[in-house]
Amino acid sequence: MHLSISCLLVSLVGLAQAVSYRRTDNVVGEEFDDFFEYQAIPDPTFGRVTYVDRTTAVAQNLTFAKDNTFILRADGKQVLLDPSGPGRNSVRIRSRKTFTTHVVVFDVRHMPEGCGTWPAVWETQEEGWPVGGEVDIIEGVNNIGTNAATLHTSPGTFASTSLVQMTFKQQDCNWLVNGNAGCGALMRDQLSFGPSFNANGGGHFAFERTPRYMKVWFWPRSAGNVPRDLGTQYVNPDTWGIPAVFFPDTSCDFEKMFSAHHIIINLSLCGEWAGHPAIYPASCPLTCVEHVNKNPTAFKNAFWDFKAIDIYQRDTRVCKNKSKRSAM
Ligand SMILES: *[C@@H]1O[C@H](CO)[C@@H](O)[C@H](O)[C@H]1NC(C)=O
Ligand SMILES: *[C@@H]1O[C@H](CO)[C@@H](O)[C@H](O)[C@H]1NC(C)=O
Ligand SMILES: *[C@@H]1O[C@H](CO)[C@@H](O)[C@H](O)[C@H]1NC(C)=O
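^ inputs. structure came back:
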């Protein structure tokens, strides 16, 4: 029986350690501009932003790619004179590919911070939303909190409590409940969001999605327990320890509720969450929208800085032929 070299290598590695996922995408620096498309669309959550196309983003240096750096930011220069005119320029990018069972690791140096900011890294099918569901992996507003990981679905999905201790904001994932709040769980690590995340040099977020569960991990930069397989060709999340957030499928049919998802990175300002009068902090200036209109320099730290995004998928060839080969 003929075995290709790559297959043989895979099988040898497979014997040495239980390999679950093989890297299919290693997105670094300029590769962000191929892997993602820019979405110059109206903000579906009514943020005070204008999402620009790639040409505009590059011309205004709202995205910047070099070596192992990819920056994505909101404009920090223009005063918006017309309160009913377009919002502050910002960027929303969406992966061309879609993913079902996969692991994705985000190596992030900096996330957008500041009053009115609403950064998000998330996954959805997008067309026909909420059909196909939504998973928010990194999200929060106005510098507040720890990071929240949240599911949004059609009716019929509940986040179950599990062995992992989590603080739920709400357990019903149904988008129709409580203004699409979703079933969000807050991470316990104070370094997982906002200025404290940035002051610590960022860190790694990882997400594993299977038909049976979804897990999100966070390791602050320089943490002692960052898994050694991050950034390599193969990862085995079973060795990563207890996730920060764990959604088992016990009260949800994941295969029915979640379709193939794009990865989306966006930076909104104000909008339904960050700008909600009950949410926008009293310690922040003006109203959220006035702040965005009048104070461009307040947004100089409203930027993402990604070192890399690695995506891993199951190597079905390895799994299917494993027993045969080991019997050889
Ligand atoms: C930004 O991301 C969040 C993630 O939850 C999403 O709810 C929101 O609709 C997104 N905003 C835009 C403008 O895409
Ligand atoms: C664009 O942004 C990058 C990263 O912040 C910076 O190093 C570079 O100097 C900027 N370029 C210009 C022309 O402002
Ligand atoms: C795996 O096994 C199947 C059938 O047993 C075979 O057709 C296929 O070529 C094998 N794949 C590889 C990569 O060896």
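The longest strand covers residues 303-313. Residues 5-16 form the longest helix (12 residues).
thumbs up if we can close this ticket
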